[in-house]
Amino acid sequence: MSTSEIATVLAWHDALNERNIDTLVQLSSDDIEIGSASGAAQGLAALQDWAATVEGAVTVGRLYVHDGVVVAEQTFDNGAVGASAFRVVHDQVTSVFGHPDLESALRATDLTEDDLDA
Q1: Gene3D superfamilies recorded for this chain (predicted)?
Q2: Number of domains forming the structure of the chain
Q3: In whole angstroms, what is the distance from residue 100 CA to residue 24 CA?
Q4: What is the residue range of 25's domain?
Q5: How is 90-118 classified by DSSP, letter by letter?
Q6: What's this model's pTM, rounded to 2 decimal places?
């Protein structure tokens, strides 16, 4: 477990929820990858464009972590649930991929209940 990786993902969510784009950029690598089932983009400009489309706040639930990969269970203001898989390197998010549910995020990253941050 890495407290640093979890702290980075939590700070990234805080910055997103506060619409603090400067902090979001600081917590992300220059070549960050942002993706979901509907497509992917790369770079800080793509991150800023994506962040501008996020409505409401995202509440983080359970966190799973192993070797730089963090899966965050998420609940959105509209009641929808999902999860995102993050890659964190040197306290920066290098990629984030949205998944429709926790199970698919865990499968995509090969994380299991053993990786739950307790």
Answers
A1: 3.10.450.50
A2: 1
A3: 23
A4: 3-115
A5: TTEEEEEEEESSHHHHHHHHT--GGGB--
A6: 0.94
Residue type present at position 69: V
Cα–Cα distance measured from residue 31 to residue 117, given in angstroms and rounded to the nearest whole number: 27
- Size of the chain, expressed as the number of residues it contains: 118
CA 88 to chain centre: 9
Interatomic CA distance for residues 45 and 30, integer angstroms: 9
Return the number of other C-beta atoms located less than 10 Å from residue 17's C-beta: 15
Predicted confidence (pLDDT) per residue in 36-76, tens digit: 888 999 999 999 999 998 889 999 999 999 999 999 999 99
What is the helix (H) or strand (E) element at residue 42, kind and residue range? strand 39-42
27 neighbors 48 (Cβ within 8 angstroms)? no
Q: Give the CATH number, domain containing residue 58.
A: 3.10.450.50
Residue closest to 64 by CA, chosen among 106, 94, 7, 34: 106
Contact 40, 24 (CB under 8 A): no
